[in-house]
């Protein structure tokens, strides 16, 4: 350990089980030895969104565990610890990403080249329910995950229509039955 900091793998091994017990998984660890003080950024995600209280709790936990390394044989000197969520710029690439983005507005690019914007509903198996505007109504389309080439969460500044949001919560019905709704 020439930098005096643990490796990405060591941080994941050290923190992974405790983060998992809290309901979160470590998606990435970025160690920046060029910044002063050096920075360890831990990106965590879970089915429950990270709020400020949870980030503070996870930060205290990570700090205590990393400081334990200091006395054992690892970290020399000061470092900056940052615990955060992946943020909206992260593309949705797996079933768990879509499940965690339920209720969020996304822009999809499908394998046929078409684009679709809608709100994420239930995710099950290889399918995500997407609430989309069709003429004057909101409908649920079930999109096979393998057909999604790119998915990006959209930043919103105003709340969604109540009917649209309600469909994201009730969209499990079609997925549970395996039927296509509104396509």
UniProtKB/TrEMBL annotation:
Keywords: Cytoplasm, Ribosome biogenesis
Keyword field contains NAD: no
Segments forming domain Ribosome maturation factor RimP N-terminal: 20-89
Subcellular location: Cytoplasm
Alphabetized SUPFAM superfamilies for the sequence: YhbC-like, C-terminal domain, YhbC-like, N-terminal domain
Coiled-coil residue windows: none
Pfam families assigned: DUF150_C, RimP_N
Residues annotated as domain Ribosome maturation factor RimP C-terminal: 92-157
One GO cellular component term noted in the UniProt record for this chain: cytosol
Annotated stretches, region: Disordered: 164-183
GO process annotations (BP): ribosomal small subunit assembly; translation
Family: Belongs to the RimP family.
Record-given protein name: Ribosome maturation factor RimP
Organism field: Mycobacterium decipiens
